[in-house]
Amino acid sequence: MNQLKSNKTKNSIILGLFIVLIGSILFWFPPVYKSVLSQDFELRNYSMQFVDWIFVGLIICFILFGEKNKLSTLNIKKINSESFSLGMALGGLSMIYIVIHKLFLASYFEFGFESFPQNDNLGIDTVGPEFIFVYGIFNVITAGVAEEVIYRGYATERLLMLKANKFLVFLLPLIAFVLMHYRKGFEHMILVIIVGTLFQLFYIKYRNLTITIIGHLLIDSLAYTSILIEHFK
Questions:
Q1: What keywords would UniProt list here (predicted)?
Q2: What confidence tier does 233 reach under pLDDT thresholds 50, 70, 90?
């Protein structure tokens, strides 16, 4: 009986990983999500945020009803001085690379890759300030919390629970995380590879999703602030 329960749990985890890792890659390729979501700029961008939360909802269902497990297995732990400091350090290290990337590397990576899609948010100049404020906050929370739940708290943690090869534990969620950003262009994907690697290393070392959530919220909050400054200067 215990073995049967163990097999059911394992099968649920494998199915959940398939949906999260493969599904998140396939859905976010431009031909797919553009055919599914509205063509209206504002509605499409709001819908894109809701899709990430749908993946989070699926994850919760797999944990509660498939694994018969607790949501605490996502490793969202109570914030304390250590997790806050580590999260800020992770965000700080990421920001150092992001600044270097934007100042010295971005133009190099953009050259010669015209076949890659361009950032959909180029249309942000056509919308009013209400959208920028509301959507921006929603986007920061979605990126900082939902993406961390999907790729670190669930995908990485479940691979660890299955005792997968350490190389696969590190690489598979990172690949999915990077390809999910394919729609934003090649230059952005290079940035995500470096930053995503830092996040994977921190999560695997500390097994504390609170740390990566804090780091992710920090870098996206700063990015959102820079967009506001640029838009309203």
A1: Hydrolase, Membrane, Transmembrane, Transmembrane helix
A2: low
Sign of CA dihedral 106, 45, 124, 139: negative
Query: Over 60: is that where the pLDDT of 34 sits?
Result: yes
Task: Tell me the domain boundaries of the chain.
Answer: 2-232
Helix, strand, coil content of the chain in percent (nearest 5): 85, 0, 15
Burial class (CB in 10 A: 0-12, 13-18, 19+), 141: middle
Query: Token pair of 82, please?
Result: 């250590």
pLDDT of 40 reads 86
CA 15 to CA 21: how far, in whole Å?
10
Q: What is the dihedral of CA 221, 108, 202, 183, to 10 degrees?
A: 60
pTM for the full predicted model: 0.91
Closest CA to 187 of 113, 133, 110, 119: 110
Inter-axis angle of helices 81-100 and 186-206, to 10 degrees? 160
Question: Which of 85, 116, 92 minimizes the C-alpha distance to 182?
Answer: 116
Minimal CA–CA distance to 226: which of 140, 142, 148?
140
pLDDT attached to residue 126:
63
Residue listed under structure tokens 């299955």: 162
1, with CB counted inside 10 A (0-12, 13-18, 19+), is exposed
The pLDDT tens digits for 186-195 are: 889 999 999 9
- Count other Cβ atoms within 10 Å, centred on residue 101: 18
Contact 224, 132 (CB under 8 A): no
Answer whether residue 112 shows pLDDT above 50.
no
